[in-house]
TrEMBL record:
Cited HAMAP family: Lnt
Protein name: Apolipoprotein N-acyltransferase
Spans traversing the lipid bilayer: 6-36, 48-69, 81-105, 117-142, 154-177, 184-205
Subcellular locations according to the entry: Cell membrane
One GO term of the biological process aspect: lipoprotein biosynthetic process
Gene Ontology CC entries for this record: plasma membrane
Length: 483
């Protein structure tokens, strides 16, 4: 491997330190600035694409190595095959920064122009990330904008432009640093963008509504290896009943598939006991009208009535079988791996005086899907089971993703998880309270619902994508004029 390739690989791996749990949010500006300089100096578009691929390989192998844990440690796939599958997956993800590098070097002329090149590269990077988050149901994990959760001053842009808009800003600033840090106008623009982020952080886009609500979020910490063992069913039931009894509240929230049964198979006395002290939101699989089953959340109320939510954005290979891949499930042990998706638009649940919109595990990666419940929803609740990923970076990374969803919507986000990280996130994206991962405990918090709507909540990803497109088109138009 050439020295430049090694540098790109290490820069990609180092960029992961900008994300949770490390939180070195200025670091991606530096690592991307160096990558973009490599692209600018690359002799051909193919060389730039290769550098982008190598950077992406380092980035994703370091950042989503927990895929190996889910396949081998938990799923039971043999180690060599799990390692190869992880490498293949990360190689696929690395194609997107490679695409951005190729197009940049292909479209930029040979005369360096810091401002124009910076806007082109920001637009291309943003569109490549959006493509990664869309193709084949999407995988926007470690999207660049997530690195700028609070306390980053750039977090102030999230209610305006969402995570893809943040990606555009980070890529723009990185390119300005890489191409024109010695020049006045690029340096001034960097300072101005960061300063305006501080101003935006002080704006409250939404306002509280209703009385404070006492909530308890339960974290059972039931090992994945035991959870689906029929002989250990009592372990899950007894764990959550004890936590609920010891921590009464107006609203009790249990994580995704907290009780590993279909809802109609759960003993009625268990449901009654869970709902005795107040109202309960239970993560549990539910039967569908078509005869299948959905990954769901059921709201239990003391009178016996219930409302439900069915997860609509399913995880390929984890919750449904992509066409032609039935053989994959002969290699791993994944219980309940063929869920039916729920409808894309579902009404919030009326619970404890609030309108609560659940999202289940992976669904909170997709900001434009979460905002479908706005402005009706006053409170967001995520139910997750990340025991599949062991003691890895997945838990703090997922919490950071939830911080962006709170910022984008101007709503509190509550997270009830099996193994971590169970937390309460304020509308400004700060983590108000969190349980230590891999502990059996209950998080007691007091929250208020919020009403109103942020600019992102109203328009979604459209403005960020339009900004990216305009940045690319303006650059191309300027290039044609100079020819």
């Amino acid at each position: 491997m050439k020295r430049q390739d090694t540098a790109a690989l290490l820069l990609g791996a180092a960029t992961v330190l900008g994300f949770a749990p490390f939180g070195l949010f200025p670091l991606p500006l530096l690592t991307l600035a160096l990558l973009f300089r490599m692209w600018r100096k690359a002799p051909t578009p193919r060389t730039a694409a290769w550098l982008g691929f190598v950077w992406g390989l380092g980035f994703f192998l370091a950042g989503v190595s927990w895929v190996y844990v889910s396949l081998h440690d938990v799923g039971g796939m043999i180690a060599p095959l799990a390692a190869f599958a992880t490498l293949l997956f990360c190689s696929y993800l690395a194609l997107f920064p490679a695409l951005a590098g190729y197009l940049f070097r292909r479209l930029a002329d040979n005369t360096p122009r810091p401002l124009r090149d910076a806007f082109l590269i920001a637009g291309l990077w943003t569109l490549a990330e959006w493509l990664r988050g869309t193709l084949f149901t999407g995988f926007p994990w470690l999207a660049l904008g997530y690195s700028q959760s609070p306390p980053s001053p750039l977090a102030g842009y999230a209610p305006l432009l969402g995570s893809y808009g943040l990606a555009f800003i980070v890529a723009l600033l990185a390119a300005l640093l890489g191409f024109g840090w010695r020049r006045f106008w690029p340096a001034l623009l960097v300072v101005g963008v960061i300063a305006f982020g501080f101003v935006l952080r002080g704006i409250g886009w939404t306002e509280p509504v209703g009385a404070p609500l006492r909530v308890v979020l339960l974290q059972g910490n039931v090992p994945q290896s035991l959870k689906w063992d029929p002989k250990r069913l009592s372990l899950s039931i007894e764990t959550y009943l004890r936590l609920a009894r010891e921590n009464p509240a107006q609203l009790t929230v249990l994580p995704e598939t907290a009780i590993p049964l279909l809802f109609d198979e759960v003993p009625r006395e268990v449901l009654r006991e869970l709902a005795v002290g107040g109202e309960t939101l239970l993560g549990v699989a539910v039967r569908t009208m078509q005869g299948g089953y959905a990954n769901g959340a059921v709201a239990l109320q003391p009178g016996g009535s219930s409302q439900g939510y069915a997860k609509s954005h399913l995880v390929p290979f984890g919750e449904f079988v992509p066409p032609g891949f039935a053989w994959f499930f002969d290699l791993v042990r994944i219980p309940m791996s063929n869920f039916t998706s729920g409808p894309p638009r579902q009404p919030p649940l009326a619970l404890a005086g609030q309108k609560i919109m659940p999202n289940i595990c992976y669904e909170d990666l997709f900001g434009e899907e979460v905002i479908r419940a706005l402005p009706e929803a006053t409170l967001l609740v995520n139910l997750s089971n990340t025991a599949w990923f062991g003691d890895s970076l997945a838990q703090p990374q997922h919490l950071q993703i939830a911080q962006l969803r709170a910022l984008e919507t101007g709503r509190p986000m509550l997270r009830a998880t099996n193994t971590g990280m169970t937390a309460a996130i304020a509308p400004d994206g700060t983590v108000a309270a969190v349980l230590a991962p891999f502990t059996r405990d209950a998080l007691r918090v007091e929250v208020r619902g919020y009403r109103g709507i942020t600019p992102y909540g109203r328009r979604g990803n459209g403005p960020a994508l339009l900004l990216a497109l305009l940045a690319c088109l303006a650059t191309l138009r300027g290039r044609r004029k100079s020819l």
